[in-house]
Amino acid sequence: MSDKSKFYKKRRKTKKATGNCNESSSHQDEINYNPDDLDIGRNTDIPYYAWRLFFSDKEYKTTSAIIKHTKAIEAFIERHEALSTLLNMANFEVGLSFDIDIYELYNDDEFMEQWPDFKDDLYENPADTLNCIKLGIYQKIFETVPDDTLQYVLKSISNLPTLKLSLLNYQPITSLRDLKLNCYGKYMYMHKHIHVSIITHTFYTCI
């Protein structure tokens, strides 16, 4: 084998080894992810514990529609003891689904006064609407955590389950065969109790 061939063969081996090293380093970065560094948003400027979990791409503004709607949900929770008593860390950690009857929202005059476009927002902009509800629920759950354990819980937040939310009795019920392209981006209640928000070309459950 010529000296030139040996040189290129050695160079290929070196390049391959370097590539493996980079891949390993990237994987190591994922393994060494430190939940202590997770900033979920609550500070002197943002009073919500999970702001960046649900609205990471939006600036916190006290006068925004998101804050007004979230406060409407918080007030609704406080008025409904059956729901508020379920919102604690123990239920959250075991993956309990927090169910809200849509008609309890519709029939709550104070809630509808605070969020008059709720029905339209849920259908037309389900992602932000559901996130407002989840943010309000998340806040109420974390408010039940004693101060002496709060920091520990916040540092372990990456190990907590996804918040599960179900809106019951949403109408109209849509059959899969009736789905059309103009349903893109809309919130729907489908047969077999599937809650879906069609915001991509695939369906995902809104929980």
UniProtKB/TrEMBL annotation:
Natural source organism: Cardiocondyla obscurior
InterPro entries: MCM8_N
Positions of the UniProt region annotated as Disordered: 1-32
Designated name of the protein: MCM8 N-terminal domain-containing protein
Pfam families: MCM8_N
Biased composition range(s): Basic residues: 7-16
Annotated ranges, domain MCM8 N-terminal: 68-147
